[in-house]
Automatic annotation (TrEMBL):
Pfam families in the cross-refs: Glyoxalase_6
Swiss-Prot/TrEMBL keywords: Dioxygenase, Oxidoreductase
Protein name per Swiss-Prot or TrEMBL: Glyoxalase/bleomycin resistance protein/dioxygenase
Keyword Chloroplast: no
Domain VOC: 9-122
Amino acid sequence: MTTTTAIARFDLVVLDTPEPRRLAEFYCALLGWRIVDEDEDWVTIRGTAEYGLAFQLAPDLVPPTWPDPAVPQQSHLDVTVDDLDAGEAAVLAIGARPTGITGKGFRAYLDPSGHPFCLCLP
């Protein structure tokens, strides 16, 4: 494999949402991160790493209906937990919704804006 010089550095994953602050607070609670930048239509959160998440105002967002293909998911986040049952209780308490989709070592949920994410075992 050939190594190359990077053209760019990874910074953020940006999620559209009708409520940037609310979704930022959800992911801060989920990941233990904090809000580092905010204005009326954009909120950025980060932990200790160089990368982060941002939430962009999209008042007309149509969330995915996944697993129904009518409005398919275009991406999702995977986050790691040590215990799926404890993780599920915690994400439901902060506003996640279960999808009923599970597999070996993961469970899928929707965040408050309808974006899918999975709790995964290491």
